[in-house]
């Protein structure tokens, strides 16, 4: 069968043996994420038609207004992962603390935990701009059959066994890695099946796009200001093109295909930047490295950072290796 006709289900079965912990659980876990993605996609696509947009009136731990779709997506992913009885713990941007699944059941032999940003970029919902779900999967490090602990969630990004995102855009795609490259699957909404549309995704050798919220320019470290001016300078293959959607999943997805760098630096307003290490930066960094790219906080490899708290933020530079390394040179000269 040609690569491009393969469904996500067929791909998972064919590649199950390549996963070193093969016991079928990870496959079932990816399948449950696939189901939740289809359910959330259905709601995202009709958001403008029913009274499901607009703030839910509540705020999450980040102090951000929760859009109803945020709440809906969070509930759907947690419900699907719980009902399929595959994971022993879940952490979410929309939940103040982690959730222990079936912790009272000593027969719970589930060994995976999932961290999710259920609807990243949700402020774009009301203006019909693409949004996404980001997920990160680890094996637990505390004894199987006992309630999960915070340390299970505070593992370095380099310990991830799988990571990916769903982008609800002009078409809905599920893009993920289990450490053997990055593959993209596009949903055929007519039959509700994901098909392998982007096998073995890699950053192009060179990138010509830079993505940053330049409205924060005056608050950036001097090194970031200097790098932005470098991108804008008429020299060699520059100036680069500026593209910023305000949705990490969409900006990263475009940059991985076309070549580019995404930056959310620290600033005088946000000492550690805005993006969360555990369920935004780590999964995107895993994908970036699997696609021959790079991700750092300007100084340290994202996947080497030891987390200290569930919702911690880190500065984020991610994209083509040469572009990230150039930005790091500017950062290290003027931190
Ligand atoms: P700003 C969405 O809230 C998000 O976490 C990312 O998806 C996005 O890239 C960034 O924040 C946008 O933040 O401050 O530029 O609006």
Overview in brief:
With 335 residues, the chain is α+β, with helices and mostly antiparallel strands. The chain is built from 8 helices and 15 strands.
Question: What do these coordinates show?
Answer:
The protein contains 8 helices and 15 strands. The protein has 335 residues and is of the alpha+beta class. It folds into 2 domains: 3-198, Fructose-1,6-Bisphosphatase, Chain A, domain 1 (2-Layer Sandwich); 209-333, D-Maltodextrin-Binding Protein, domain 2 (3-Layer(aba) Sandwich), CATH 3.40.190. The structure holds 6-O-phosphono-alpha-D-fructofuranose. The site of 6-O-phosphono-alpha-D-fructofuranose has 10 residues, from helix 6. Residues 120-121, 123, 213, 246-248, 251, 274-275 line the site of 6-O-phosphono-alpha-D-fructofuranose (P6P).
Give the overall shape, derived from the CA principal axes. globular
Largest sheet: 8 strands, mixed
CA-CA gap between termini? 52 Å
| Gyration radius, in Å | 19 Å
Content-based structural category? alpha+beta
Overall domain count: 2
**Element-by-element helix/strand order:** HHEEHEEEEHEEEEEHEHEHEEH
CATH superfamily of the largest domain: Fructose-1,6-Bisphosphatase, subunit A, domain 1
Number of helices: 8
Mean pLDDT score, rounded? 91
What's the CATH architecture of the largest domain? 2-Layer Sandwich
Low-confidence stretches: none
Tell me what portion of residues adopts beta-strand conformation: 15-25%
Number of strands: 15
Helix content: 25-40%
The largest beta-sheet arranges its strands as 4-3-5-6-7-8-9-10
CATH T-level fold name of the largest domain: Fructose-1,6-Bisphosphatase, Chain A, domain 1
What small molecules accompany the polymer chains?
6-O-phosphono-alpha-D-fructofuranose
CATH class of the largest domain: Alpha Beta
